[in-house]
Structures are given as structure tokens and as C-alpha cells.
Amino acid sequence: MPVVSLIFYSLMVSLLIQSFIFLRASKGLPTARGLLHIFVLSVLSLINTLTYYYAFSYTSISNAVFTHYIAPVVVMVLAPIFLKERVTMAAVFSVATASFGLWIIMRDVSVLDVAAQIFSSGPNFFTGQRFKPDTIGIICGLTSGVAYGAIIIVLKIISVRNNKYAVVFFQNLFVVMLLMPFAGPAPSIAESLWIVVGMGVLYSTAATYLYYGGIAHVGANKAAILGYIEPIGAIFFGALVLSELPDMLSLLGGLLIIAAGYIVIKKG
User: Is the pLDDT of residue 172 over 80?
Assistant: First the structure.
């Protein structure tokens, strides 16, 4: 299935389920200002999800997940600007560590070459022949990580004023509306339909509310640290199901990025 169709129809399933949860758990509609903030969050969420899925389409699971996990470091960079948080030595060390890890993963990607291709080809630069699939996947994974970092900043700003169930519901509603013109026909093959339903129930609904439940019981920092099971699990299942094993340099770069994110979260 095309990536856009996969996201759109799985979110449609999720939205149907979340509508019942929203009606039962929400204590009212957000204000107009709150809806505007949620719309911004939805655009960032769409960029994050699209580029993350495209990363899996073009490169290995390990490259996609490792570059996506630059997000905690992005949060650390943006927090002093938008949240007025102070810069610590641990934060500076984390940025340096993550940057080095990212440089190792992107060892075959020339930033100057990518920039030149973007400006010479415009919006069609991905279709050019100068890029290897891994290069496109790594760029997508990195873009996803930056967008996810921005999502965390926006969530931190709006979470004190908005009900979490309302945020999740309207965020998905806005994403569905943005994707609707590009969704294409609904999946008709039984196998595709079950994948879409499964993703809507498990990934877009259950995982979200389980994460909120975890934060409520153990706190945001511990929940975020536990979230680092994701790259470990992704590499394990990639090796088990798809026989994908990251090379040693990619593994080293990924571990440095994860270590940097862990330090950021552990230090608050």
C-alpha cells in the first residue's frame, strides 16, 4: 500500500474508536486557541509520521529508528528558546554525542550534495538518480526525529490547558482531513484491510493510551526512558522477521544517539 493510504485508513479506524473514548472521557471542547495549537501539532504529527514511514520504505529499520531518536536532543536544543529552560553541561555533552553518532550513520551522505540537489531539482529532488535509497531513508528518518522533537515542545506548551483525550482526538481528526485528498481508494484486499485495522487499533489507539497511562503512573521521564525499548525491539524484530542486521558502524552511531537521548531524559 502507498504510505499515505496506509496512514489515512489506519487513522480512520483509530478515529472511530477514539470518538467513543473522547465522548466518554473528555470534559468539553477545546477553545479556538486550543484548536489552533492542536492543528499545529497535527501538521507536525503528519510530517513526523509520513517521513518515518518513508524512512522504513527506503532504508533499514535500524537506520530509520536511530535517526528518528535524535528527537530528545532536538527537544533539548529547542527547550531554552520556547520553554525558557536553562542549558546544562549534560545537555551540551548530549548534543555533541548525538551529533557524532549521527555523523557516523550519515557517513555516506554528503550534506552539501543533498543541499545542491534540493535547490537544483526543487520538490522533485527525491526522484533524481543521484541519491541512494539509504540516503533518502536517513534524511526522512532525521526529518521525522526533528518533527517529533518539535511535537514534544508543542505538547508541553498545550498540555496544561487541554484535555489529553481531546488533543489526541482532534489531532487525528485534523491529520485525516489533511490527508483526505491524497488517500486514494480504500484497501480491498483482505490482507491489506487487516493490516490497516490492526494498525488503527494497536498503533494509533492502544499504544497512545497505554503511553498516557504509563506517564500517569511512573512520570514522563521514566516513561520516556522505557520508550527506548522501541529501537532495541525494532532491531530485534527486524533481524528476526526480515533478516536485517545493522553493520557495526551504524550500530555504534545509533547507540551514541540513544545514549545522548537517555542522558537528556535522565537529567530532566
Answer: yes
